[in-house]
């Protein structure tokens, strides 16, 4: 059964502008602000999004991967069909390297590790996801502790997802007992009070140029900090 238009959530887009990080005749790399969809949502009121804004300046920009509405960070936007096909194949082969930074509740111990837990949609709590050994798809996330603030009991993590499941980083960290700060979907009231936004940022990305084959690497610092998320 499909949702009616009335049942679809309207997401208010941020007024913060996207940032151009790299440009050539084949692709763009941009920094998406939090509180902005990557592509238009199902509700007509959710047309305003990253790609619609970018296409005002670069009409041929296309989407090859996405970030959640709440997540900020780096997004690759191919400008040609050939570039779209090539970069899409890189994502399918899992050769695109992505790293995120996040602030989470509690002190994460051990300081590094891997979360290898299958993720499935949660029909009873749409649009949420859950860990499910029966119907979940294989999902793998590596993490590294970057710092811990004892005063607020907050850890800063570097996250390297191997797979790209919906809500993977949120669900995996929640499963460890360390929800991402400011998470309106999976966090409790205390969690949400710590930050006005989800403290998750796509901080770096590495892939091969679709024409030259040259390795491209880009990084943008997270716009939140351990003392002021």
How would you characterize the overall build of this protein?
With 229 residues, this protein is of the alpha+beta class. It has one domain: Pseudouridine synthase (2-Layer Sandwich). It contains 4 helices and 11 strands.
Which helices and strands occur, and which strands form pairs?
Elements lengths: L18 E5 L3 E6 L17 H6 L16 E7 L2 H12 L4 E9 L6 E5 L2 E3 L7 E3 L8 E10 L4 E8 L6 H8 L13 H5 L6 E9 L6 E5 L10
Parallel strand pairs: 3-10
Antiparallel strand pairs: 1-2, 2-3, 4-9, 4-10, 5-8, 6-7, 8-9, 10-11
Protein name: Pseudouridine synthase
Keywords: Isomerase
Pfam families: PseudoU_synth_2
Short structural description:
This protein is α+β, with helices and mostly antiparallel strands and about 230 residues long. About 15% of the residues lie in helices and about 30% in strands.
